[in-house]
Amino acid sequence: MKKFIMILLLGIITLNVYSSDVIPSLTHENLKKELIRRNIPCYEIVLAQALHETGNFKSRICKEKNNIFGMRTKKGYKRYDSWIACVDDYENKFSKRYKGGDYFKFLIKVHYHEDPHYEKCVRKHIRK
Q1: Domain housing 43
Q2: Count of structural domains within the chain
């Protein structure tokens, strides 16, 4: 039994290492595919949020911390192992709580932002 558990754990560790090696680069198309794959509601707005928050994936926070949504703790911006991990966090904190309706009003309700111009800024990044 111990041998089986060790083999299982080794397999999981190997899988995790392998998974991190195949994370695609952060691009508009790759993020869109990931949001759609996860069935993230209002993925067009979420994609636009990432573009806005990162300055089209060029910000220091994005590059150094893999933080594509401006996620914070009380101590500052959160650091992620990959941009995929940041999507995980966003999905768990926000997307799973969305029950329908105006997504921008939802973002205000869940305290995602405080900027009165946020919706206008994000809408500029939504591709038609």
Answers
A1: 24-123
A2: 1
